[in-house]
Amino acid sequence: MPNYVRSRVAGGTYFFTVVTRDRRPVLTDDACRGALRAAVLSTRQRWPFTVDAWVLLPGHLHCIWTLPSGDADFSKRWSATKRMTSQALGRSVWQPRFWEHSIRDESDLQRHMDYLHGNPVKHGYVPRAIDWPYSTFHRYVALGRYAADWYDTAPDEDWD
Prior knowledge:
By secondary structure, this protein is an alpha+beta fold. 35% of the residues lie in helices and 16% in strands. The protein has 4 helices and 4 strands. Strands 2-3-1-4 form a 4-stranded antiparallel sheet, with helices on one face. It is globular and about 40 Å long. The protein starts with 12 loop residues before the first strand and ends in an 18-residue tail after the last helix.
């Protein structure tokens, strides 16, 4: 097993990818969405963080979180969220681990926001981002950060 070292920036903003066990397409089911929402709310009460963006797909999710100043422990937040979701559903939902990327600057943030919001289009679930209901894209359209007709597929796959 590789010796993976996570990037930890206190008060940082992070992009995450979290995958279901065996990529089972369960995250958009009503029961799973409800359990995940409750788990995130409970986790945020105990260990605050801001959800900057989120997209829920059947077998994985992407999100961007900002942690409070002086705090870099996103792992405990994901551990609690995943545990509570599985407990509420009475079954193991998640693949072990998750992938994270520390957001470096505004340009990096925008690339990851575009990737996240374009992901349902990239995977062929909908022709436009506005058509996918499980996303913060709608919030950003209301704020004027995206046009409602924005539907480009995700940015180039050559990220780094």
